[in-house]
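Q: My labmate handed me this sequence with no annotations at all. I'd like to see what the chain might look like in three dimensions before we decide whether it's worth expressing. Could you predict it?
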Amino acid sequence: MKVGIIGTGYVGLPTGVGLAELGNEVTCIDREASKINALKEGKLTIYEDGLEELFQKNRLSGNLRFTTSMKEGVENADIVLIAVGTPPHPITKEADMKYIHAAATELAEFLTGYTVVATKSTVPVGTGDAVEGLIRKKNPQADFDVVSLPEFLREGFAVHDFFSPDRIIVGSNSQRAADVLRKLYQPFADKTEIMFVKRRSSETIKYASNAFLAMKIHYINEMADFCEKTGADIYEVAKGIGLDSRIGNKFLNPGPGYGGSCFPKDTNAMAYMGRQNNVNLSLIEATIAGNDNRKKQMAQRVLSEIKDIKNPKIAALGLAFKNGTDDCRQSPAIEIISALLEEHADITAFDPQAMKNARLLLGDKIKYATDEFEALKDADVMVILTEWKQFRELDLSKAKKLMRTPHIIDLRNLINPEAAKKEGFTYRGIGR
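A: Here is what I predict for the chain of 432 residues:
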């Protein structure tokens, strides 16, 4: 099938590569010429584990193309996926729909033959109606249907999740459109449930899913705080409750709070929609407030460790919001570092993939190391903020020799506490 994808970010690009690998002719569209030129030259514009090989393979085969031209990408396409950003409004925190509306308006005049237009971005309930209206207004003669096709790709695992999805949700009020999507996802039919629902139900499913997972993360973090006060071990507690099939063992890892481009944005947008519809979404509201406060608590945890040290130096290991990605949007690491900077902390940081993106957010407020050991040189506390494998396998003996004061604040519980103490570190993790 011929597929056009508007947007080449953390949703559009992995989706485009995946659909091309399935044998479709995919054209990715983006207004940013520098990004398109880089992709044409074989340079990935995001880091995503496992993406490089499939990207190069399908680019060279011709199944995957890139353009700044909406006409080139949309004309003669069977399906057009809108995968542009829906950032939070700076005041209300509702999803900002200007990029969705702009894409819908622009693509309208280039529709030829019957086309399914799918919103792949996470969008508020009723967006399908708005997109349909914009296209109809711009091109009254167009033969098309609008569907909701929410993505469930985890950053850092997007390639795996594309080819091994838990489920595929198609929100369609048209049988004709549903048949087109059934054909597109035929390769998954034998191993994955493809669920066809009303368009507004599909739009709700995405928000409801992310809000529930965010609540689960915040819950286990509150339990971790409780365990620290009472002498329980959060990992024993998490395993015990996770064995209950009604609860499950996923998203029960304590840490510094959730972050990234989805959970903070989507919980805020869901809470806003609740208020707009006079529905009290109290659990989501409490989760948002609690998660925001957790970052401040984690910063205070670090400060308390070095309060008696003159001119303390902090080594921050990790800047991305999680491992496997270079994405720093709403990263707990960035927010904790920002809170520390408010107290005039001296910070040197390192991340194996996210240094460029972190620098765009933090500028020259901190120092940037070339590796974890340079960051640790003369540091008084090592703060682990992102769960990269190389931090888990850190040479503690070498680290101890480099540091001025041997303190570890492990906000990801990566390092074995007994091994750290054996090397002479004072160690504090989460929930123990």
